[in-house]
Inverse folding.
């Protein structure tokens, strides 16, 4: 294991977090994979385990306006003409703290013409009997207010059966429809009567999903839970989060240009805001100078 990787263990869980991008390269429970990982000497494929900030998903044409000023981000998804998954997934993070069961990494987003704001990010990862927990804070250390959003990007693994045979439970009443070619937001629709209604757990089958969902149902403790299970093995994985993330992106990982990586896992990404929120403003976090935002999520074995 290279010096830029940090292994943590506890409660039957083992995770490996990279110093590059604070990506989660590996997560297992009693030796069973809970996410689609990648090798230590492999470049992160398909944003597996990426840490996504200061915006989740994509921004149309990489353009946005904030406080009356137009900005142009780097378009790193040229085939769809979008700025995808933020600014920190491929930069070094600094080790803040590391113990047997926890690791905390930090990075600073320095102001540029494209994103002229200063944010100090900290991500604390820990494992215990409750699962693999990530707690995230963003502090605006600059002199101007800043737009912000965040999400993780794990591909959950229910078990050894093919994804088509897994069962998904997704407590969301609303789906954000998108353009078929660029996956840009069109509008919100009820999931009733659509292929995207998984409020009652059912088999995924051959449905293709790369959509954001909202209208989430939370339990008495204020938590939303997405579960994916493998009936054949009796195993599964769940993602749990609170109301600080009113959205979740679900992706069945249909990658026609990379057939070897297609439908290996189900991306479940709790998001503080929907795709292209820098333009729509919907649920966008705006941090005043000196203000901090906190959120988090947990992956558990079933």
């Amino acid at each position: 294991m290279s010096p830029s990787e940090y292994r943590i263990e506890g409660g039957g869980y083992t995770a490996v977090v990279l110093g590059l991008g604070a990506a989660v390269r590996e997560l297992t429970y009693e030796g069973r994979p809970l996410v689609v990982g990648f090798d230590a000497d492999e470049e992160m494929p398909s944003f597996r385990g990426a840490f996504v900030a200061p915006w989740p998903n994509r921004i149309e044409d990489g353009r946005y306006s904030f406080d009356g000023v137009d900005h142009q981000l780097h378009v790193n998804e040229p085939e769809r003409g979008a700025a995808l998954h933020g600014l920190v997934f491929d930069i070094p993070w600094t080790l803040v703290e590391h113990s047997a069961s926890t690791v905390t990494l930090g990075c600073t987003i320095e102001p540029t013409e494209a994103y002229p704001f200063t944010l100090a990010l900290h991500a604390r990862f820990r494992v215990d009997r409750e699962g693999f927990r990530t707690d995230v804070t963003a502090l605006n250390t600059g002199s101007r207010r800043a737009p912000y959003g965040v999400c993780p990007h794990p591909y959950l693994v229910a078990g050894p059966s093919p994804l088509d045979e897994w069962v998904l439970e997704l407590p969301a009443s609303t789906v954000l429809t998108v353009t078929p070619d660029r996956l840009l937001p069109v509008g919100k629709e009820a999931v009733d009567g659509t292929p995207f209604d998984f409020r009652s757990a059912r088999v995924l089958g051959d449905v293709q999903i790369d959509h954001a969902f909202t209208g989430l149902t939370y339990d008495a403790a204020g938590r939303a839970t997405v579960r994916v299970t493998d009936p054949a093995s009796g195993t599964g994985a769940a993602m749990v989060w609170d109301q600080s993330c009113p959205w979740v992106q679900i992706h069945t990982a249909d990658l026609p240009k990379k057939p070897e990586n297609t439908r290996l896992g189900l991306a479940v990404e709790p998001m503080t805001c929907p795709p292209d929120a820098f333009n729509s403003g919907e649920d966008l976090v705006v941090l005043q100078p000196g203000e901090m935002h906190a959120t988090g999520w947990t992956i558990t074995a079933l």
